[in-house]
Amino acid sequence: xxxxxxxxQFDKDRVESVKNIFAEIDPNTLSQSDLESAAxxxxxxKTPDDTSVFEQGRCFDEKTRYSSYRRSAPLSLDxxxxxxxxxxxxxxxxxxxxxxxxxxxxxxxxxxxSIPGMTQLWESIDRLTExxxxxxxxxxxSNFSKYKLKxxxxxxxxxxYLLKEAYKPSYKANPQKGGASHAGQQFIDWDSDSEYxxxxxxxxxxxxxxxxxxxxxxxxxxxRINSWTGETEVKWHVRYHTFDWEDENHVRKLxxxxxxxxxxxxxxxxxxxxxxxxDFQRYVNRLDLAPEWRWIFEHYLAGMDCGEIxxxxxxxxxxxxxxTSARDICIRKIPHLIAIEAKKCRMIVxxxxxxxxxxxxxxKKFPRSGLFFAYDYSGVNNLGGKCLECAGYKRGRYVND
Length: 401
Description:
Helix content is 44%, strand content 7%.
């Protein structure tokens, strides 16, 4: 190994130093690595203007993946520019700096007004801001009200960024080649984060048993050969479904794959699968579930074994369940409650105000249905005057018992 003096700065002095070293040893004993080290030592020396030949652009340092023994012949800048395979757009000036700045989210009211719900959110922010500015301080109760109003405005302003991120994400994933094999689709859509592989027989059974309009042409799906089993597998995307929250079978399928879907799209707010997960969480939170039911369901979604679930429930809540009853809660009873809750939400939105019935106690208006009012055959439309909540009917209370 050559003993090169790294304290020498200029290239001409380095050339004289290398000549003196070569004069003292036998040239036949020099290896390729020694010659390469000496050449690099000279090339990285400084010229009188305090720059190297690399910084002047007179020599190109080719970056290789492997060791120096597999390195191809060095290329000059002229020969590199004359090459037909070299992309000249990749060249940048030595004085040009590449600044990688993290995209900072911003709200522009003239550009983001097209986002659904954003205009209504701005109206609420402006109205609460004017109300907060008009409040006079001094009294303790007034200061506390102003404090709560201020934090409510903070939350609404934070929600507008979440809403924009859902429709106009700052970062988009790089499209990966794949997806459908036909020429109409060359890349996977942004919803491709929620996907999984299944065997061809499973795919056929899913197509046959599905209640949804699903494409039955296998050429429109991405396929592969499993290296372990040798079977043909089909990639199934969640977006192939037209999801119906009022169908218990659809909710049951979502519960089966919920954990995988939630983990794959937890930080991708712009995907359809993330919207599905958020709607599912919203419906579950609206249910009046007993604490032990909620504990069972949350841990069932997380993939915990039913035997382990019932043991922990008995230890925490002092109630005894068997494996089949815990599984029945998660795959039959709770999907039924979610379907009912989805139907109630749809009826509230779609039913016009003049078709609703007012509760004689709380004064709220609900659709004329047994989902909102208790049945009373002596009343109008066989419905009582009080809504279920005012009448003391708690669906969760009766189902949980």
